[in-house]
């Protein structure tokens, strides 16, 4: 099912029936609940984290020790939570099971964390081969939903993926950086001083680091990262 087409009456009926129950525990939703019940939402992994790199910390801080030693190029990272259940399952369903409609409720939860929205959102691009296999770009769907909520513009043509790279899941941080070398291009467009990169999961930060470098070279002053999950494990 392609996410950019006009939904049919069957799609609307399916969504109406589906979202009468919590998609995690399957219990009926109350009038004040949407997509997930309050109990399941409370189970989302939302530990304190470093607002610069996204690493989980004991308390919420602006810069952790790692950032003070080797700071990321971007300005701030906003995340919904850690890559743990039940967010892990939801991101997997969004990314690999074709449930692109999960992008909107997940984006609604992430938007609560974003205090200074960027006027322009740029989703991490997919190579056309991976796009054809998946049918959609999950980062683009997240960016569209966030753009509507935050009143930000979305440009999914700004970045172009030049190479069909090896999947990042089983690679080390150094291997990820090498794997993404010269993998992206930024089209020659006019950009505002404040831009946010949207990705579903940030692990080592290799992908968003490469994209941030391109934006800084293009004259962007502040680059933020919007992501659903952050993890230091070997997952993407």
UniProtKB/TrEMBL annotation:
GO MF annotation, one: glycosyltransferase activity
Matches recorded under Gene3D superfamilies: 3.40.50.2020
Pfam short name (any one): Pribosyltran
Keywords: Glycosyltransferase, Transferase
Matching InterPro entries: ComF/GntX_DNA_util-trans, PRTase-like, PRTase_dom
The keyword Metal-binding belongs to this UniProt entry's keyword annotation: no
SUPFAM superfamilies listed in its UniProt record: PRTase-like (SSF53271)
Residue ranges of coiled coil: none
CDD domains: PRTases_typeI (cd06223)
Residues covered by the Phosphoribosyltransferase domain: 168-231
Record family assignment: Belongs to the ComF/GntX family.
Annotated protein name in UniProt: Amidophosphoribosyltransferase
Organism: Photobacterium carnosum
């Amino acid at each position: 099912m392609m996410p950019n087409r006009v939904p049919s009456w069957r799609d609307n009926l399916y969504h109406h029936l589906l979202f009468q129950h919590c998609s995690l525990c399957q219990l009926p939703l109350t009038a004040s609940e949407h997509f997930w019940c309050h109990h399941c939402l409370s189970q989302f992994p939302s530990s304190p984290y470093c607002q610069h790199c996204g690493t989980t910390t004991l308390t919420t801080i602006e810069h952790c020790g790692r950032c003070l030693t080797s700071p990321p190029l971007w300005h701030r990272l906003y995340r919904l939570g850690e890559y743990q259940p039940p967010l892990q399952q939801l991101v997997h369903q969004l990314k690999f099971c074709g449930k692109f409609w999960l992008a909107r409720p997940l984006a609604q939860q992430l938007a609560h964390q974003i205090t200074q929205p960027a006027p322009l959102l740029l989703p991490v691009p997919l190579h056309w081969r991976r796009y054809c296999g998946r049918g959609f770009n999950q980062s683009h769907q997240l960016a569209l939903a966030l753009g509507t909520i935050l009143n930000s513009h979305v440009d999914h043509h700004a970045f172009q993926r030049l190479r069909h790279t090896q999947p990042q899941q089983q690679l080390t941080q150094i291997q990820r950086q090498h794997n993404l070398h010269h993998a992206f291009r930024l089209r020659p467009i006019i950009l505002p001083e404040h831009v946010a990169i949207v990705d579903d999961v940030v692990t080592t930060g290799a992908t968003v680091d490469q994209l941030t470098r391109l934006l800084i070279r293009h004259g962007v002053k502040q680059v933020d990262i919007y992501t659903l999950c952050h993890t230091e494990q070997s997952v993407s």
